[in-house]
Amino acid sequence: MDDAPLSRFHKKLALYSSGGPFLDGYVLSIIGVAMVQITPQLHLSSSAEGLIGASALIGIFLGAFMGGYLTDKFGRQVLYTIDLVAIIGCSVAQFWATDPVWLFVLRLLIGMAVGADYPIATSLLAEFTPRRYRGPLLGGLVVMWFVGAAVAYVVGEALLNVGDDGWRWMLASAALPATIIVLLRLGTPESPRWLANKGRIEEAEKVLKQVYGPEATIGDLLEEEERENVDLKAIIRSGYGGRMLYISVFWTCSIVPLFAIYAFGPKILGALKLEGSLANLGSALITVMFLIGCVIALLGVNRMGRRPLVIHSFVWSGLALLLLGIFPDAPAAVIMVLFAAYAVIIGGTQILQWVYPNELFPTEVRGSAVGLASSASRIGAAVGTYLVPMALTDWGIGGTMLAAAAINVVGAVVSALWAPETRGMALHEAAALSPKTEPAGRPAAV
């Protein structure tokens, strides 16, 4: 399995697994457009507006824990479709929401389903994908987050024209891509590794032959060393507490401004004098810039190195936010250029959210560490998103952008102090507490 060629099955599985990140970007971004109509119609206070904006993030935090537990207990394949069915139902139900409480609850449930899909889909993809392609296919899922966000802004702009109920159609629209993904996922086989682990040997061998050909047998599955679950105390006792702290802080600083911009992009651009259609289309353009930034970062991470990339990404994207804070009344073209610059340059920190945690921890604690850091970052993102409407009201757009720039400064400082360089190292060398000096010359491809 690990050395099999990349087949059509693997490509389809990667595409279908990317549905979760796509819906994540879509759900978190469409609310920013919809809020333009929701706020006056439901008479939302700044606090209620922030809670609704952050509700899906809170749900993702809860759902990731739950999804990981359930997929290990009941399997990947069944939950692979059930979680999206929940998204469909809750998305449609939003159409009839009449008060902020129900809207908050429904978006919380949608966030839980989206969050649950991450461990479910990525586990299934990782357990089928050959080792040579596992990294690129898993890492490429982040691209679909930005695709979903860009599509959400375009759809939101189109649905604003249907009248006062436009926001209802926007929020319900997530059901359409979720339905398509569910239909595509039907028939996906269960992970043979999970089946074998549960003692269902005949079923596992049947899946192996279906995917890899009649010559494949259960003997092709490598025996994996059993490891007991590692909790937070064990991570700290093992000497990785410092790395855990760095990953949590770096990850949080990299996504708090980004998620706030996605949740309230049109409102932020409106405060910067880019209103109406220009604000929504501007948000879509910025999302495309985020996507371009991630692609550029992926192409340069091995050449530039992890440590310089994360520091430069924080510093120069923070400068763009600083200028937006100092000059909130600048011409529209200047504002768009600065937002686009932030979106492209912050791509370095975005892709390192997937690279750094997996390189800096050994196999015994890697899953626990990545899950813990992801949860901590979502808490920060939810708090930041909740505070954005109040910050816009109390501080104005200039002060809000300055606060976002300050978060980037924190990320740059902690990275300058604690970020290691793992370029060109073998995985076990990068994960060692005292890694060897980076090898001279051109680093090996990762």
From TrEMBL:
GO cellular component: plasma membrane
Cellular localisation: Cell membrane
Main location: membrane
UniProt entry tagged with the keyword Transmembrane helix: yes
Pfam families per UniProt: Sugar_tr
Membrane spanning residue stretches: 21-39, 51-71, 78-96, 102-125, 137-155, 167-186, 244-264, 284-302, 309-327, 333-356, 368-389, 395-419
SUPFAM superfamilies found in the cross-reference section: MFS general substrate transporter
PROSITE patterns: MFS, SUGAR_TRANSPORT_2
Classification via InterPro entries: MFS_dom, MFS_sugar_transport-like, MFS_trans_sf, Myo-inositol_Transporter, Sugar_transporter_CS
Domain of life: Bacteria
Entry similarity comment: Belongs to the major facilitator superfamily. Sugar transporter (TC 2.A.1.1) family.
Protein name as catalogued: Putative MFS transporter
Lineage: Bacteria, Bacillati, Actinomycetota, Actinomycetes, Kitasatosporales
